[in-house]
Amino acid sequence: MDVVLIDDFIDPYHHLQLLESRVQKEADEKANEKREHQEVERLKVKVQKLRAKKAWLEQQLKQQHAKVLTDLDGDDNSLPDMGPQELVQLVAETQKKKFEELIQAYRLTGITVTTPEPDITRVCWDTAHKGTLCEPYYMEIQHKETLRILRHSLPYFVPLETVSQTLLNTDFKKFVASMSEYLAAYVNRRQEIVMLQKKYSDILIGEVESSHAADFVQFQLKLQPESEQIIEAKLTYEQLTDIIPTKVRIKVLLRNSANASDVTISTQDIKHYKQCFHSMELTKAVGEILD
Amino acid sequence: MAGSSEVDIFGEIQQTINEFPASESENETPGTPRRSATSITQLLGLMGREPTYRRNRKERYKLQVENLEKEIAVLEERLAYRKQEEVGKLSCKKFEKTWKRVKRLNQTSQLCGRHEEELKALREQLHELGSITGVVLKDTSCILKKISSAVVKRQHRVEGSCHGLRFELDFDITESKVSETDSSSVITRLAVEADEAVNSDLAPFIQRVEEECAIQTFLRGYVGYAEWHSQRQAMFEHLSQRHPNSVTISEGTEATQLTFSRSDQPGATFTVHWTIDISNIGKVTPKVQLVTKATRQLLKMDTHGVFARLPKRFEEKVNSHGARQATELLMIASSLNAFTKITV
């Protein structure tokens, strides 16, 4: 076969291929350019919108609403010089915000109730330990013919079933208050343990052991950092609504190197320690013992 | 022409523009076609730099968008903070009066309808909260003090009442941002003012809750105390009105004892002491006790020891039937000559 003839055939195809890929490349470049152009235009429009929003916000900040509201709040019965629609809007919106603030303020009581849907009531129990706000607990209750608990986030040891059987459909207020009491007491006992560990870490021996419900607490502590005498305390809170222990057991232990004659804690002292635990919260009782 | 940076490009544009003839008459040689640049894009196109310029313009817009979004976020936060601050300072009670005034005006009364519906729903929600918690909140105000971007301090004042006993709380809350999604709130100061009728009774309890900034403890204890207080007041008032001749209430704004005797048997008086103790941790314990007084003569005649056993019997009745019923039963018993066993 004539090689020149084959070459004559190959070259044109090769050129055709090159042409095709060039056309494709140009088409791709054009498409990219178009996309880029559209993207730039979109960004341009976005910049314009954002500038307008910024200008509006700056204008809002400059407005003298504060003075108008203060004037309206005063004892003077005159009303500011503004259009009726604007006045109604301003006063009504402010009144709504004040009511919403009052509703929010109910969280201080530890109990808030909302109605997210017509037949669902949501109860929120906010807990606190002295001035520190702790975690909230929730419950959703459906009310059709009777009240029924749909879901909740209460700890397992709270006697929800027992209390709800007695109170949920007979005295809702008492049911809510009862749950509040259980949760407040649990958080209080738990946080007292946390405070004890934090405040007296230098005289505590090991960790403070407790049950999940913090209704049984056991710890060992030295009366002085260098002391050989150790007090072992076991506190029981018989009711889950107690925040002061109802049963207190105290033992005096000696460190390995100490002798029995090194014991200086008397029966009277132990009686005093028990009295402290019986009459005050955990951290305060330990503070009183150490004084 | 070298360089791919923005600065280089604009320098090159300038150079290119300068190379173009300023006017037809000045530099044009006859017969030579006139060249002119009508847009930067065209110039860049001639220079082969148009795609690069477009890329850089895109980056510039993106940067502008980013900066504007940051500025807007700051402005929105400032506006929200300002609005919260403005509204927070206002008194809820006073502002309700303002709303009523606005509703009465001729030009605004018709515009208020929709807003009044929404306000009514909020009032109902507040009423429900009051009945469930036993606390009726009447007014709240707040002054915001931003300390830093992560710490905000709010000074709050809350006014309310529990079963007719008013209270006022003045406290500070410091909120610190712990992470993006987490923050902690601590009450750092608390001043409590209870109703003057019970202020002295509750002084030790109030002192303790103020020291510990324990608002929840205060409210829980105060609700319990107020409930018993209102029951006691109601019982004393009811009995004194029903038996005006035989019942006397102890003096003072805070009546804690009720005394009654039979007019035909003045030798015996019965005093019901009703105290309400509140511990430092807010636990409320009512104590209802009966104290009997009888003349020596009457006691001599009481051979069955009725007077001696009465206080214990009364306590049992209080535990089973409540203080009011126990007192009424005692009054009925004493008026029906229940002590006929005492013979002269």
Task: Summarize the topology.
The complex is a heterodimer of chains A (291) and B (344).
Chain A: H1 3-62, H2 65-73, H3 84-105, E1 111-117, E2 120-129, E3 132-143, E4 147-152, H4 160-167, H5 172-199, E5 204-210, E6 216-222, E7 229-236, E8 247-254, H6 267-279, H7 282-290
Helix pairs in contact in A: 4-5, 6-7
Chain B: H1 6-19, H2 24-27, H3 40-47, H4 50-88, H5 92-104, H6 113-133, E1 136-146, E2 151-162, E3 165-177, E4 183-194, H7 203-212, H8 215-242, E5 247-249, E6 257-262, E7 265-278, E8 284-294, H9 296-301, H10 306-321, H11 323-335
Antiparallel strand pairs in B: 1-2, 2-3, 3-4, 5-6, 6-7, 7-8
What does this structure look like?
- The complex is a heterodimer of chains A (about 290) and B (about 350).
- In chain A, α4 (about 160-165) packs antiparallel against α5 (about 170-200) and α6 runs antiparallel to α7 (about 280-290).
- In chain A, about 50% of the residues lie in helices and about 20% in strands.
- A four-stranded antiparallel sheet of chain A has the order 1-2-3-4, with helices on one face.
- Chain A is extended and about 110 Å long.
- Chain A is α+β, with helices and mostly antiparallel strands and about 290 residues long.
- Chain B is of the alpha+beta class.
- Chain B is built from eleven helices and eight strands.
- In chain B, α10 runs antiparallel to α11 (about 325-335).
- The radius of gyration of chain B is 41 Å and the shape is elongated.
- Chains A and B meet through α1, α2, α3, β1 and β2 of A and α4, α5, α6, β1 and β4 of B.
Radius of gyration of chain B: 41 Å
Give helix and strand order of chain A, one letter per element, not per position.
HHHEEEEHHEEEEHH
The backbone outline of chain B, from C-alpha atoms, is: elongated
Main sheet: strand order of chain B: 1-2-3-4
If you compute it from the alpha carbons, what radius of gyration of chain A comes out, rounded to the nearest whole angstrom? 37 Å
Mean pLDDT of chain B: 79
Q: Major sheet of chain A: size, sense and barrel closure?
A: 4 strands, antiparallel
Oligomer type: heterodimer
How would you spell out the order of helices and strands of chain B?
Answer: HHHHHHEEEEHHEEEEHHH
Tell me about the largest β-sheet of chain B: 4 strands, antiparallel
Mean pLDDT of chain A: 88
Distance between the termini of chain A: 116 Å
Number of strands of chain B: 8
Indicate the percent of residues in helices of chain A. Answer: 40-55%
Strand content of chain B: 15-25%
Can you give the helix content of chain B as a percent range? 40-55%
Side-by-side strand order of the widest sheet of chain A: 1-2-3-4
Q: Biggest chain pair contact, residues each?
A: A-B, 70 and 76 residues
Principal-axes geometry of chain A comes out as extended
The computed structural class of chain A is alpha+beta
- Taken as a percent bin, the fraction of beta residues of chain A is 15-25%
